[in-house]
Amino acid sequence: MLVIPRLVAEYRTRDVPYFGSGQVIVDPSGPVPRLLVRTGEALVVHELPGGGGDVADPVAVFPGPTTGPVVGYRPVAYDLSHAVLTDEGRYQMVTREGVRLWELPMPRVDSRPVMSATWCRSPRGEPQVWLVVAVDPERDGQVDPSRAVSLALLDTRGAEIERMVVPLVGENQGVLPILGSDGKVVAISNCGSVRPVTFTLGHDGRTVSLLSERKLLSYSAARSLLVTVGLDDSGRRTDVRWHDARNGTTVSELSLAEILSSEPDDGPSHVDPYISWDGGGLMDDESLLVMLEDEDPYEEGGDDWRGMSHWSVTRGAGCHHIKYPIPLRDSQLYDSYPLGDGTWLMGGRQELYRWSLR
After folding, report:
1. Is residue 186, in this structure, part of any structural domain at all?
2. Single pTM value for the model
3. What range does the domain containing 206 cover?
4. What is the DSSP code (8-state) at residue 19?
5. Mean pLDDT of successive 10-residue segments in the chain (358 residues)?
6. Could you tell me if residue 272 is inside a domain?
7. I need a labelling partner for 356 at 20 to 30 A (CA). Which of 5, 105, 151, 221 fits?
8. Taking the alpha carbons of 241, 243, 249, 252 in that order, is the dihedral positive or negative?
9. What is the DSSP string of 293-352?
10. Is position 190 within any domain?
């Protein structure tokens, strides 16, 4: 079934061409979505108000060299007081005035850095940050440093509050913690491999449940549900699954065949599609933006062929193929960012589009 989204805002910014490069990311965690832009001299923060228009002057600038990508889901504190910059294999904690408070080396596995920085609030509302750091035998026990890293929670002074060991499985070099509303880690995604892995945590805060070959797509704090994409039980096709965040148990799933069967017979067709784990996520607590992608994007299937497509999925209530009212390139569908309020962002040439199904 087709559904046509509504264009609710259009933002004009010269930073759009850098989407997908690690230089620009969208942070939807605040009351207003933020655009985080890495330059050679600073990390710059813009806000994206609901009305659209030209992206305004930055609301915060964190001076300092930033040669690495913008790391983590939230590399800037919620109150814009601090940020984590990356430069030459190290984290740097800086203030908006450019004061460098402290720095830490990133862990290296197989000669490559493993990095992530995700901000949260303490029970008293103070900014704290989860960083991926090297394992420490004195605190973490006898752990092989080539097969594990640690997640450490630090305050802005650099004092460690807690830490946990995260195994690295296969070639996974990316570690992303998913946090609950209380700032505690709910799940961890090892996301740097073609075979991603998701861990959920037990009551003691240890990684206990392994969702092998499943990429963590989103987390609904209101429903206490994790959403993953990965191989189905046959090992040949992909599916979407919802898991109880407390124990990783699968509570619902949607197969690729079910998605495709909801499309009208005369709709555009894929050649050999799969559900992508590189795009999409929860648009709100109920609706999921899912991206389908052809296995071989260069093997075109005729005039009605498309390499990528977007779908709206609601658990237990079916799915709809999203047909945009304006022409879009596949690369624009790839760079899509659900904001959690029922809308999602997509990049254009010099503009950002904000869409809604409401």
Report:
1. yes
2. 0.88
3. 71-212
4. B
5. 90 79 81 87 89 90 77 82 89 92 90 86 93 90 86 95 84 76 84 69 63 84 87 87 86 90 66 83 89 70 65 85 84 81 85 90
6. no
7. 221
8. negative
9. EESSTTS--STTB-SEEEEEEETTS-EEEE--SS---HHHHHSEEE-SSSEEEEE-SSEE
10. yes
